[in-house]
UniProtKB/TrEMBL annotation, chains A, B:
GO terms for biological process: activation of innate immune response; autophagosome assembly; innate immune response; positive regulation of macroautophagy; positive regulation of type I interferon production; reticulophagy; signal transduction. It comes from the Eukaryota. GO terms for molecular function: 2',3'-cyclic GMP-AMP binding; cyclic-di-GMP binding. It comes from Ridgeia piscesae (Tubeworm). One of its GO terms (cellular component) is endoplasmic reticulum membrane. This is TIR domain-containing protein.
């Protein structure tokens, strides 16, 4: 089954590598020192204090219903802006020091102007499903693509919950994103999760 | 089918990105200027001349029969040593400036001491098959793993030969490597290809 293979490869080839110590890497990320302005709060009395960075130390994996995954979350919502990467390297299958860094985005709530950070990505294997259907040579119909996406999400949840994968449990959140018809709930979901 | 999904995702998510301009990136790789000693030939008269770097400007994808893919080719053959990377970045599915660089190895023929360069990797999805079987929670038996590897190789050859994929044709070589029982033909294959 295409979806099952993609879910297992996403787990063994990526999530199982980066999730176990993600929380520690978020804590020791050097961005916080270089950008104190991002964490400065001004009190009622005009006093400035530096607060804890408001970041959910987990990987938020967004699975869009259309399977269409733009290059950047800013293409989905201009309130979500890329600010940096949490670094991670590992040599794997002959690729020396392969880069597995995660992208960090700054999310601004347009109503309150409050700022949050989130480690975001679309589920890249879902983009493969989209391209398999669009490219028209893989023989994947639109109905099959939708079915495979649902199977992928179910399988991935199962894998991340498995007792053998304790080191990954609770380190990632799979967010199903209803982007058809186009609706702007994306940033609200992320903001809700980050608070 | 697991193997088909892995082959299509390997194509759309990696090969289709890096193969089209690989030859140009190999030519303009800055390693050649920084390491002239690697291309210096000493003539009969003791005269030194700088020659063209002996590199096959193609991606050599090694598919081991056991599906076991070590982290580095040096683990397979000490005559194959990592010397650098051909850089390539692309933003994809929310991952900004994702690194898709290729590892370059220096291959020394132990008999003639001649040196060649090769862009090598194990077929990463094959490692996923290995881990799916080893991990024992994916439900992939050894027989199924072997069958899936063969299907993956066949599908990949087909995809790379497809008339719609002209931009990738001839840019990669799939090398089936009989590593069971363990035999040392690996480096000879690479040397033979590189000459
Ligand atoms: N040799 C090699 N070098 C690369 O840079 C690379 N990038 C991808 N691939 C292989 O191509 C195919 C498609 O990749 P995709 O990104 O859709 O899925 C990837 C992706 O969803 C996730 N993943 C892997 N590396 C990263 C990464 N650096 N950032 C984000 N996600 C990643 O985990 C899946 C499986 O990865 P691999 O098991 O390494 O093999 C992949 C896969 O077979 C690569 N292969």
């Amino acid at each position: 089954n295409v979806a099952h293979g993609l879910a297992w490869s996403y787990f063994y080839g990526f999530l199982n590598l980066i999730l176990p110590k993600l929380g520690e890497r978020v804590k020791s990320w050097d961005y916080w020192e270089k950008h104190p302005e991002d964490r400065t709060q001004t009190g009622e009395d005009g006093q400035k204090t530096i607060c804890q960075p408001r970041i959910l130390p987990k990987l938020i994996i967004v699975s869009p219903q259309s399977c269409h995954c733009p290059d950047s979350f800013t293409d989905v919502d201009e309130n979500i802006v890329h600010v940096g990467h949490i670094p991670f390297k590992a040599s794997r299958a002959g690729n020396i020091d392969r880069d597995y860094k995660n992208s960090v985005y700054k999310v601004t709530d347009p109503k309150t102007l409050e700022v949050y950070y989130a480690i975001l990505e679309f589920a890249t294997p879902i983009l493969s499903l989209y391209e398999m259907e669009q490219g028209a040579i893989a023989g994947l119909s639109t109905t099959q693509k939708d079915a495979q996406r649902t199977m992928f999400e179910t399988k991935l949840e199962e894998i991340l919950e498995h007792p053998n994968n304790r080191q990954c449990r609770g380190q990632a959140i799979l967010l199903s994103y209803r982007d058809k018809p186009s609706d702007d709930t994306g940033h609200e979901e992320v903001t809700r999760l980050s608070t």
